[in-house]
Amino acid sequence: MLLAVKNLTKTFGNQVAVNDISFGIEEAKVVGFLGPNGAGKSTTMKMITGFIRPSTGSVSIHGIDVQEKEYEAKRLLGYLPENNPLYGSMYVRESLQYTGKLYRLPNLSKRIEEVIDMVGLGDEQQKKIKQLSKGYKQRLGIAQTLLHNPPVLILDEPTAGLDPNQLHEIRNLIRLLGQEKVVVLSTHIMQEVEAICQEVIFINKGKLVGNFSIEKRPEMFENKNLEQVFYDLTK
């Protein structure tokens, strides 16, 4: 199992943010993680990546428990948070060098060239990050998640705020990555789910309300928005 989430729960005081969620992903694919604002998507992603500890439950990557062997597990993960934190005063290539040194990667210059080419940053690599458009900042964020070549990528709202051209290019990149890696991405956009995802996981009010392949349930997505799909799942 590439990614296994078992009975994951997170409480903040009396508030239950995530309530006993379980799912598993066995092979490379793009999985949409859907839910309205406040559903618990980002909290779940932060627990999967080890940034916050669950109240109960566990997450494992390739059988390695994220809490018990945090360092080992995180080497198998790439995480792009929703706010995509970047050092604006750094140059693109400098930022990748910094990230690569944190991972102590061998042959770092070669790997940086590979990742720059993979995400389409070639024309922007000599710029400062603060000079980049939103789309190229997202590409750089994805490049950082890819640098150590992890088998599992967790992307929180990776296409939020992009213009139509940027949106198309980032979706194509994610679709390509999903051929070799598990990619779990959160989104509010049903068209995005239909365009790039093979499987969907629905969460609402901290609870799992659906988990199935799009190919097996195409009727769930035909001419519907996110609210309509959730109504069909919970009625």
UniProtKB/TrEMBL annotation:
Residues 3-230 form the ABC transporter domain. It is an enzyme of class 3 (hydrolase). PROSITE patterns: ABC_TRANSPORTER_2. Its EC number is 3.6.3.25. Pfam families: ABC_tran. Transmembrane segments: none annotated. Keywords: ATP-binding, Hydrolase, Nucleotide-binding, Transport. GO terms for molecular function: ATP binding; ATP hydrolysis activity. Gene3D superfamilies: P-loop containing nucleotide triphosphate hydrolases. Belongs to the ABC transporter superfamily. This is Sulfate-transporting ATPase.
